[in-house]
Amino acid sequence: MGMASTSFTTDSKLLESLKQGTSRDATERVCTVDDHNRPTLYGHDRRDVRLYNLWHRATYVIVRHEQQRASLPCSPAAGDTFVLVQRRSLHKDYCPGKLDPTPGGVVDFAESYDDNAIRELEEEMGIRATLLRGEEDDTLFDKDSHFMQALFDFPYEDERVRCWGRMYEVFYHGSLSDVKIQKEEVDEVLRLPLTEVKQWIENSPNDWTPDSAYALQLYLQHTHDRRLMRVSSSLSLERYRLRPQPRVIFFDCDDCLYFDGWTVARQITKKIDEWCVEKGLPSGEAYELYKRHGTALKGLLVEGFMEHCEEAVDDFLHAVHDVKYHSLSRDEELRKMLIRLKDIPKYIFTASARHHAERCLDVLGIRDLFEDIIDTKSVGLHTKYSREAFEIAMRIAGVPMEEAERCLFLDDSVKNIKAAQQIGWRCVLVGRVGRDCGTTINAEGHAEHEIDKIHDFPKVFPELFQDS
């Protein structure tokens, strides 16, 4: 691997010490790698890694401070999680004096990631950790040891550092006074709420080491992905990365943008049954058609109860959506929330008819805030939870299939959420009670977030909203 010219700016005195080889640990041999994380034959001196911004390995450790010893590691809830943050020594050759939310270190030549993470944590903070390598029982660990998990590998690159990091999570159950600082490396250790750390980084990024701030973003994303990993094989932990900002946001309409206790939905269901009875079908057959074909309309067409032409389909859609909207009203809170969304195109993606969605949006006072409405006719009458419907919706919104991950979808149907996640969309389940069952529902790991109502959207994706 060749050496590039110096690409970072730093304190002139520190730069000179690097050139002279007098900086701290200048001749320490480092595990350098190529951009695919394959180790070089002999490694390089630390001074060369810093001077020429060589690819190398490093560890990053989130130290969760648990007041009481946890029985087994669990996914963190950011609202009540505290972490230990280091302030780096002014003698460091990289980001001296900066705050570091993920303590760790540069991996030595012939040293493993795991050995480095354990060594650095004990040397710099006096925390002795034991790495979990499976579903070990808590009793395997002595009282002075702390759980550590390896989570994922990731590449990071900027003008000052290029590294392949491995992210760890440790559960520290001792007191803050038990932390023993290595003064040559660390000036102080702070115990801070994870939410405060995240906000501080957003407001004052220059206070923090940039690669560690990025690692923290990955960690926060990973807390949601832990659930998704049970059902998705598309998440790679060997080259983990931040997902890009959504390119398009798709909103379901009924029982998602509004919730009226299914008053409108029940009217539509009744109208469909009445339409079928008028055509000579027994009462209840509309629901059986729905169960067999995904929608009653598709069942009527497939089983020959309706002529397969646009005029017949339009007559049906207008008849069954001839409902009252007294249960809906203008929603100023919803309008303000949608206006606060950053400049990302927004579409309605509904299994119902366009004219019905338009009336709902008009009553809510938000019709002007959407690019378009993708309804059942737009997707060729395919059921909404079919792959074909989602592919057509992407084509309408101008999103290529290889960018499916950049589609964000909000819906109240678990079935629709599952279908969206399988095609690669990011999902939010809106509402936690099922219409048919009347009991609590969940997306079983297919949604990144589950919220009670659409107005909670900013709570789970605050980065998509402008400040009030």
Key descriptive features of the protein:
468 residues; 14 helices; alpha/beta; single chain; 3 domains; 18% strand
Explain the layout of strands and helices.
Layout: H1 12-20, E1 29-30, E2 44-45, H2 46-52, E3 55-65, E4 82-88, E5 99-100, E6 104-106, H3 113-125, E7 129-131, E8 146-157, E9 162-172, E10 186-193, H4 194-203, H5 210-228, E11 248-251, H6 263-278, H7 285-293, H8 296-302, H9 310-320, H10 332-340, E12 346-349, H11 354-364, E13 372-374, H12 387-397, E14 407-411, H13 414-423, E15 426-430, E16 449-451, H14 457-460
Parallel strand pairs: 3-9, 7-8, 11-12, 11-14, 12-13, 14-15, 15-16
Antiparallel strand pairs: 1-2, 3-6, 4-5, 4-10, 8-9
Helix pairs in contact: 7-8
Model description:
A 6-stranded parallel sheet has the order 13-12-11-14-15-16, sandwiched between helices. It has a 5-stranded mixed sheet with strand order 6-3-9-8-7, sandwiched between helices. Helix content is 31%, strand content 18%. It is elongated, with a radius of gyration of 28 Å. With 468 residues, the chain is of the alpha/beta class. Helix 7 packs across helix 8. The protein has 3 domains: 12-228, Nucleoside Triphosphate Pyrophosphohydrolase (Alpha-Beta Complex); 248-260 and 328-464, Rossmann fold (3-Layer(aba) Sandwich), CATH 3.40.50; 263-320, no CATH class.
Kindly, what is the distance between the CA atoms of the first and last residues, rounded to a whole number of angstroms? 49 Å
Report the uncertain regions.
1-9, 70-78, 135-141
User: Which geometry do the CA atoms define?
Assistant: elongated
CATH class of the largest domain: Alpha Beta
Return Rg in Å: 28 Å
How many domain modules? 3
- Superfamily (CATH H level) name of the largest domain: Nucleoside Triphosphate Pyrophosphohydrolase
Oligomer: single chain
Number of separate strands: 16
Listing every helix as H and every strand as E from the N terminus to the C terminus, the arrangement reads: HEEHEEEEHEEEEHHEHHHHHEHEHEHEEH
- Count every helix, treating DSSP H or I runs of 4 or more residues as helices: 14
Structural class: alpha/beta
